[in-house]
Amino acid sequence: MSDKEIWQELSAYLDGEAADSEGIARLLESHPEYARQFDALRRLSHQVKSLAPPEVHPGFLTRVMAEVAETRPARASWLVRFGAPLATAGAAVIVVLVGAVVLRAVFAPEAPVELAGNGGAVTAEEALFEALEARAAAGGDIDAWAEASFFDFDDATDVSTEDLITGLAAEDWFDELVLAWEADEDLDTIIGALNDYERATFNELLQSYREEGMTI
Amino acid sequence: MSGVDDWTLVARAQAGDTKAFAQLVRRYQRPVMQFCLRMVGSAQDAEEIAQDTFVRVYRHLDRLEPRAKFSTLLFGIARNLTLNFLRDAQRRGGGVTDPMETHGAVGDERLRPDRAARLGEIEAMLMRAMQRLSPEHREVLVLRELNGMDYEGIARVVKCRKGTVKSRLARARAQLQAQLEALGGDRL
Predict the structure, then answer these.
(1) Cα of B63 to nearest chain A Cα, Å
(2) Contact A14, A42 (CB under 8 A)
């Protein structure tokens, strides 16, 4: 094993998670250098654990419950959930499109923008599934997460479907869908909760983002 | 109600019992605050994120089902919110609050002043060193050392494989050790 691998095994051993704890115990007995490294790891762990637990403000619970009292726990309609971002994106698109028509007619899309990437049109179901998957995948990889999160429509001259979905997955409001996904609610259930109008709304939202990215 | 398990409290809250939800908040407010504080470095920001975490849970109560540990779901939300916060802070060009301003032990009046100051110094140095870790390394370190999660639980929260948790944690500890040495903390 390399030094790096040994350090990793010592770290896991400290946490009671080593694959071969007996082997590590023997290694520590026979190699003083590794025993010193393990002691250093143990001291470090102790120091971190000794960080004082934070004081919770006495009014914390009251504030949470006050906000909760104003929150409807029941499932909000998709229209309500999509309303704000859709309105924002829609307003931006309208402003941009009007400006584009006035300044340069070429900026105005001649036909409705399709959610089409290299692989062809994307349905709401496919987009939702891919976005949920992308978000879940990015969750384990901060670099990918950061890359997705820093996706900036302002700088975009064109947006691939993949970028669109990744960008969508980085939106705060998308957390609500991710939450359902993470709670092991299956995709069919999530999709099944959409009525025709809500599916159209979801598609419209995706289109709005794409248009915004293409024209700004 | 203190002996009631989490999912029973969730079920009661789903039925409209706000006291049951308050009990969940009481049970987890400190660990969630702990996680948020060590991630973002500022007590005020951490409290806002923690508050938002609980409100989001409440908002989606009807969807929650006992398929995993409640704490995994709770910390998963807190983690998403802290990462969003850090991302936004970086976007704005600002950093997180200097941990020297936020360490907690200094104000403990039960300690002698010199002892409290010493503990405060150690804590601030540790916090400063931890803030220099990347979020992906800091989160596994905090979840393991301060929230006491096992590798399986951490993997569920950060959505990666258990082996990745193991390697990230080892790297986080190596980096933390190096940062402490650079800050002079190896003499603590």
Answers:
(1) 7
(2) yes
